[in-house]
Every structure is written in C-alpha cells, then in structure tokens.
Design a protein that fits this description.
Shape: elongated
Distance between the termini: 28 Å
Order of helices and strands: HHEEH
Radius of gyration: 17 Å
Oligomer: single chain
Mean pLDDT: 87
Number of strands: 2
Low-confidence stretches: none
Length: 88
C-alpha cells in the first residue's frame, strides 16, 4: 500500500515539483534506499514510422513524463470537493 496520489496536482504546482515527481517515478530508491516502491522501468521508447517499407520518421514516448502529467492534472483528491491546501 502506498500514499494517496489523488490531488497531487494541487501540491506540486511548478516545474520543480514536476521534475521531482518524474524522478521519483523513474528511480524511487533515490529518495529512500529501502522503499518498497518498485522500479517500474519507465524508460523512454522510440517508435519508428515506416512508409513504403522504409523508415520515414520516429516518435519518442516517455511513460514517466506521461504518468507525472496525469498525476499533476488532478487538483482535487478523490472523495473531496475542493483542492488540497497547506495547513499552518
């Protein structure tokens, strides 16, 4: 069992937060050596486009960046009606 990641977009609002989340998803053991979160092997994947049997281009997908973007897009935690707010 891990932390509730819903509403994470309200906590991580800048580029520094996005970069932290990206790195945490790719290498969780950098933040805690004994973490139980597995390394999900989220390396970028390059796909080659073929036209008439010849390579005509390529596109790179970064699953860690996609997951980070998805998590940061959710501002309101599940079961709540408003975004997370820091407390004093």
């Amino acid at each position: 069992q891990g932390p509730d990641l819903s509403g994470l977009g309200a906590k991580l609002t800048d580029d520094k937060g996005r970069q932290w989340l990206y790195t945490w998803l790719k290498q969780p053991n950098l933040y805690h050596a004994r973490t139980v979160m597995p390394n999900l092997l989220l390396d970028p994947v390059t796909e080659t486009t073929m036209t008439n049997g010849q390579p005509s281009g390529s596109k790179t997908y970064d699953p860690a960046a996609d997951i980070a973007l998805y998590l940061m897009s959710h501002k309101v935690p599940v079961g709540h009606t408003e975004a997370w707010k820091a407390e004093a």
